[in-house]
Amino acid sequence: MVKLYEVAKVIRTKNAGPFKLTIDVFLKDVESYAKVKDKLSRELVAKLYNVSEDLIEGIYFVDTILGVKITMIKEIPSDDLRTSDVYGAQQHGPLINLDIE
User: Fold this and answer.
1) What is the rounded distance in angstroms from the CA atom of residue 85 to the CA atom of residue 23?
2) Which residues have a Cβ under 8 Å from the Cβ of 35 and sit 6 or more positions away?
3) Which fold has domain 4-76+87-96?
4) Rounded CA gap, 15 and 30, in Å?
5) What SS3 state is found at 72?
6) DSSP3 helix / strand / coil % (the chain, rounded to 5)
7) For strand 67-73 and strand 20-27, is the pairing parallel, antiparallel, or unpaired?
C-alpha cells in the first residue's frame, strides 16, 4: 500500500482563527492527487480525527495545484486553557499514514 506521506510534497496544519483547524496537503503528481481526491471524505476525516462528522466544515480540492484543504471546527478553541495545541501545528499525524490505494 502507498501511504499519503509517500506521495505528498507537503502535509501541514495550522489554525484558521481560534475556532478552526486547517490541514493542507499538496501532492507530487496528478495520479496521486486523483487517488486522494477519491479517497477523502468528511466521514473518513472525522473517523481519523475521532470527532463528529459535523465538525468537518469542508474538504476543498484545488486541481490546478494538486492541493487539498480540510477545514474542521475545533472542539476546544485555541485560547482555552484546556487546549493541547495553541497554534494548530503538528496535527497532521492521523492523515500521514492514510492508505491511498
Assistant:
1) 14
2) 7, 100, 101
3) Alpha-Beta Plaits (3.30.70)
4) 27
5) strand
6) 30, 30, 35
7) antiparallel
The DSSP result for 11-40, as a single string, is: EEEEESSTTEEEEEEEESSHHHHHHHHHH-
Instruction: Please compute the mean of the pLDDT values over residues 30-41 and round it to a whole number.
Output: 96
What is the Cα–Cα distance from 11 to 23, expressed in whole angstroms?
7
Q: What percent of the chain has pLDDT over 90?
A: 71
Residue-wise burial string across 37-59, b where 16 or more C-beta atoms lie within 10 A, e elsewhere: eeebebeebbeebeeeeebbeeb
pLDDT(100) > 80: yes
